[in-house]
Automatic annotation (TrEMBL):
Keywords: Membrane, Transmembrane, Transmembrane helix. The keyword Transmembrane applies. The chain crosses the membrane at residues 228-247. This is DUF559 domain-containing protein.
């Protein structure tokens, strides 16, 4: 739209709405001509003069100007007032009018959920550049905030769709694996042992992926229909583990298929990697953290104590302070990401991040919720 077209649009708008803007000295029309027409972000078709609304008492109210552009998320009300409206003939304050003004303003904000800008006639007449700048800034801010919210919602929906697809893919892969395991029951002993090793590795990998997806799905607050593929996947995983156990029991009764850390370790002697028959490298026990300082990895163990100070929260694993095997550190600035962490006391969890050392004790600093995975 060129300047000529825009000017004609405003002239037509003023002509169509001037009966709503009656004023002894024509201030409302002048406000449109001297202020609103000079703001390029305003399309006259989105401006409503003497915009009506209902207050909390069911009364009919009006505001001088309302700019409504739902496609850009813009909801801006503008009111211009002279001091005379609030005065008695002797120039004292008319408190009834003043109270009514505030009541109308509160009703507008509550009912329409919009931003309100108020200007005295003296201000917009003498400081027009300031008024124009303030209105433009508010319009641009509302448009930016709205577009950012829309983009964030679209990204989140895409992430949820991607997670659903991954869950479905994992479920299908597990189903295919069950078929291959069932077909291999008649293999000879050496082939069965090789198959068992493969099964154990795949179960360990799938378990880690399941934990990650489960945590992300919970944070996404998936609907019940979106949770169904996850439930199917869990069932398939359990079935796969059962079949693997059956194969092992046929050839070597003393061995058992297990995925590491499915149940909390009962004591230090049961939590080392050496105690497991499964060659898992995806997780480390919290009791081994000392040997991996400086590495970025995943540690799994039982939270036995949670200590809070003014600035930080400590999650102590396996033993209470000062004998804990490893400590998860949550600074107050990230505490909001770990609401409800106190409920994880005496539960087996996994933490992800770089292992550092403080006074000879290994620790991992947690900043993001995804670093804390509940077993």
């Amino acid at each position: 739209m060129n300047n000529s077209q825009r000017e004609n649009q405003w002239k037509q708008w003023i002509e169509n709405n001037k009966h709503k803007m009656e004023h002894p000295v024509n201030f409302e029309v002048r406000f449109v001509e001297e202020i609103l027409t000079r703001i390029p972000e305003i399309n006259p078709s989105y401006v409503k003069a003497q915009f009506p609304f209902i207050d909390q008492n069911g009364g009919n109210r009006r505001i001088d100007f309302m700019i409504l552009d739902e496609q850009k998320g813009i909801r801006l009300a503008i009111e211009i007032d002279g001091l005379g409206k609030m005065q008695n003939p002797n120039q004292s304050i008319n408190h009834d009018r003043w109270n009514d003004l505030l009541t109308r303003q509160n009703a507008l904000l509550r009912v329409l959920g919009c931003m309100l800008l108020r200007y005295s006639n003296k201000t917009w007449l003498n400081e027009s550049k300031f008024v124009i700048h303030e209105i433009r800034s508010e319009l641009l801010k509302q448009e930016f905030d709205y577009s950012s919210a829309v983009e964030a919602r679209e990204r989140r929906e895409k992430e949820i769709t991607d997670k659903d697809r991954k869950i479905a893919d994992f479920a299908q892969a597990a189903k295919d694996h069950i078929s291959s395991v069932a077909a291999g029951v008649s293999l000879d002993v050496s082939s069965a042992e090789a198959e068992r090793t493969s099964i154990q590795k795949e179960l360990a990998l799938i378990t880690k992926q399941l934990l990650t997806l489960s945590e992300e799905s919970n944070k996404s607050r998936l609907s019940e229909s979106r949770k169904i593929p996850l439930i199917v996947f869990v069932s398939v995983l359990i079935t796969s583990a059962t079949i693997g156990f059956f194969m092992q029991s046929n050839s070597q009764p003393e061995l058992a298929v297990s995925t590491r850390y499915v149940t909390p370790p009962a004591s230090d002697s049961n939590t080392s990697l050496g105690a497991s028959n499964v060659p898992v490298t995806d997780y480390l026990s919290t009791t081994e953290a000392n040997r991996h300082v400086g590495e970025k990895t995943t540690l799994c163990g039982r939270i036995v104590q949670i200590r809070e100070t003014d600035k930080v929260t400590y999650l102590n694993f396996d033993k209470a302070y000062p004998n804990s095997t490893v400590t998860a550190v949550i600074w107050n600035e990230y505490a909001k990401n770990f609401s409800g962490v106190n409920q994880k006391i005496n539960r087996t969890v996994c933490i992800e991040g770089e292992i550092s050392s403080y006074k000879g004790k290994p620790q991992i600093t947690l900043r993001d919720r995804a670093q804390l995975i509940t077993k």
